[in-house]
Specification:
C8orf32 fold, alpha+beta, Transglutaminase-like superfamily protein, globular, Papain-like_cys_pep_sf
Length: 201
């Protein structure tokens, strides 16, 4: 699927806010460490992706009950669900001048029940003519997401026959409903995930 930026203004995909807080020292320090040994934006982006995918466990997999939503908190606490990990990766990319934004999928259980919104990111490397989606959710048996810019290697290819879908827009800021569900949750097991994008439900 070809990601579509919600705005042609690339500066929107480099901005910092309360969630994508790449001005925070934790984000800056993590980015500096990841940049060591890399020689260009592509190598740094791959290192950042693999760090968030592998070094920050997904809360549902690890059983960690803490809820993180701000990028700096995700990196400091090393935990988060897909949304939080996407916020962290977006912040790490933006901190090194790589435009990045948030993307979403609607996923279900194997029988089509239990729809939930899943979070991932898209980035545009310098010189690239297109956006590429990446999913740093974290691998496990049956999930094998990779850093791949030409052919998508996402955690969950959608199954349209079950009502799943990819949403093409690349958002410059996290969806308010996503941030709200994280901030309101008493624990990671108590997060009430949105079921679809509001405008496409």
């Amino acid at each position: 699927m070809e990601p579509i930026p919600e705005t042609p203004d690339l500066s929107a995909y480099l901005a910092a806010d309360d969630v994508i807080d790449h001005h925070d020292p934790v984000v800056k320090e993590t980015a500096a460490l990841l940049a060591e040994g890399t020689h260009n934006a592509h190598e740094y982006a791959e290192a950042a992706f693999e760090y968030v995918r592998d070094a920050i466990p997904h809360s549902y997999d690890s059983g960690d009950q803490r809820v993180s939503w701000r990028a700096s908190d995700v990196l400091e606490q090393r935990n988060g669900i897909c949304y939080a990990k996407s916020h962290a990766l977006t912040a790490l990319l933006r901190s090194r001048g790589i435009p990045a934004g948030l993307c979403y999928q609607r996923l279900t259980e194997d029988d089509g029940s239990g729809p939930a919104l899943h979070g991932l990111i898209a980035l545009r490397l310098p010189g690239a003519g297109r956006w590429s989606r990446l999913d740093a959710r974290g691998n496990k048996p049956g999930v094998d997401a990779r850093f791949s810019l030409d052919v998508e290697r996402l955690a969950f290819p959608v199954r349209p026959e079950l009502g799943e879908r990819d949403y093409p827009l690349v958002y410059a800021a996290p969806l308010p409903a996503v941030v709200a569900c994280l901030r309101a949750a008493p624990s990671s097991s108590g997060i009430l995930l949105p079921t679809a994008l509001p405008e496409a439900s």
